[in-house]
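User: We ran a pulldown and think these components assemble together. Before we commit to crystallization trials, I'd like a predicted model of the whole complex to look at. Sequences follow.
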Amino acid sequence: MTSREGSASAPVAFSDHDHAACVEDTLAAAEEVCAERGLRLTPVRRKVLELLLQEHRALGAYAILDLLRDAGFGSQPPVAYRALDFLVKNGFVHKIERLNAFVACVHPGETHSPAFMICRKCDAVAEAQSTPLKGALGAAARSTGFQIERTVVEAEGLCPDCAEASGS
Amino acid sequence: MTSREGSASAPVAFSDHDHAACVEDTLAAAEEVCAERGLRLTPVRRKVLELLLQEHRALGAYAILDLLRDAGFGSQPPVAYRALDFLVKNGFVHKIERLNAFVACVHPGETHSPAFMICRKCDAVAEAQSTPLKGALGAAARSTGFQIERTVVEAEGLCPDCAEASGS
DNA sequence: CCCTCTATGTGATTTTATAACATTTCAGAG
DNA sequence: CTCTGAAATGTTATAAAATCACATAGAGGG
Ligand SMILES: [Zn+2]
Ligand SMILES: [Zn+2]
Ligand SMILES: [Zn+2]
Ligand SMILES: [Zn+2]
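Assistant: Here's a predicted model for the assembly, 336 residues in total across the polymer chains.
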């Protein structure tokens, strides 16, 4: 087996919540946004988004591909990468560069600069907002004349559960 | 040819400076730090650091490997990856996650949380400091109980030169 | 209906990274 | 100085991640 499948042990992102509703609502919101913008949330694309929403964690493209195959879709890499491209470009999914993996956005539709907290032990990923123009990086950009177009902000460490489990 | 070689057109990182001295000084500093800490800056490791210092930009592992081969070292991937592992672990080189590439540190020896500005047009990379605990991400971490151990902060955009070149 | 553009399916390939094992080098012990 | 064990290097092979190229299928406009 190439990938971790199954959502049984998937940690919710640092806090309990009604996960079924969380998936439903976000999918519905995505459909609405696509309708508004004339985007086609095709079956593969919808399925990939659904898979990423079900897990509250980052999945690699090949893990997604395995799940797509199980669901009866094509099983070659471009199938997964093309769906992911669409979802990332339109803000429904973010890529976690540190992990070469993808995670569903919790604020679909709204343009925002995400920041992520990644647990090195259980792989949970939580999305927060970053404020790229404030702080040291923004200051450095202004002083050198660098024009920021996109930012990658990823913190690696221990999530609350794993920190507690591993003492202290 | 697999990679961009040659430093002729390599942009200096957003500002003119005495590059020869820049390379020399940083290499000397690295040797001193290694001596202090009992680390072995072996020929391959030193060469990789030198190559990265000469280019003020990120190089992929295979580009480095090509240059190592030219310099008479082993030409199989582990040669490059092992040297890079050493240099990254000891803070002489940083990995740019967005590019799957590596860049020499401009503050070798000192522990710090780097932030990078990456020009999407000319590939120049400039290092700045980030302040992970301040700002939105730090606040999110504190409020959820996430323990940050390491951060990846990378801004993509246009460097001053390329911004000017491409109009306004 | 026909044409065109977009999306999907599939095979092959490129790029990035690691595993596994043999050989060499070197610092420190005796 | 010589032995010895750990660290470093060289090399083969393989895994993992991403893209290319081209054929087929669908949706929508005329
Ligand atoms: Zn988001
Ligand atoms: Zn955790
Ligand atoms: Zn320089
Ligand atoms: Zn640095």
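The pocket of zinc ion (ligand 3) is lined by residues B 12, 17, 19, 22, 56 (CB under 6 Å). That may be worth checking against your pulldown data before setting up trials.

User: Thanks, that helps.
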